[in-house]
């Protein structure tokens, strides 16, 4: 069990290094920004619910939905890139 925990910690540290590369860090910050835009749109809709017209409300809901979808796609791309790099590095070390 001890070997497993040490191996798992080593894997986690290696993946953290891959997450902190400049291109992945940029992608992470873009995803956080898109999530922030979605949250701001939702808060604006909650706060000014009575003052916003229905047409504007629908546009804002659509924009919030699109930003949520964009967030999920960006995070999926980030996780995919890190895992591909991790397994590629791991397979190269084994050869």
In short:
The protein contains three helices and no strands. The chain is mainly alpha-helical and 95 residues long.
Task: Tell me the helix content.
Answer: over 70%
Question: How many helix segments?
Answer: 3
Overall residue-averaged pLDDT value: 91
Q: Number of DSSP strands?
A: 0
Q: List the secondary-structure elements in sequence, H or E.
A: HHH
Shape: elongated
How big is the Rg?
Answer: 20 Å
Uncertain runs: none
- Largest beta-sheet characterization: none
Percentage beta strand: under 5%
Q: Given the helix and strand composition, which structural class is it?
A: mainly alpha
Detailed description of the structure:
This protein is mainly α and 95 residues long. The chain has three helices and no strands. The chain has helices at 2-19, 22-47, 54-94. It starts with a helix and ends with a helix. The model has no long low-confidence stretch (mean pLDDT 91).
């Amino acid at each position: 069990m001890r070997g497993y925990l040490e191996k798992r910690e080593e894997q986690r540290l290696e993946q953290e290094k891959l997450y902190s590369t400049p291109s992945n860090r940029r992608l992470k910050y873009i995803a956080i920004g898109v999530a922030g835009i979605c949250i701001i749109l939702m808060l604006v809709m909650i706060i000014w619910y009575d003052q916003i017209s229905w047409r504007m409300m629908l546009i804002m809901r659509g924009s919030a939905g699109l930003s949520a979808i964009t967030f999920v796609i960006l995070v999926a791309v980030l996780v995919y890139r890190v895992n591909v790099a991790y397994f590629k590095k791991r397979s190269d070390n084994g050869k």
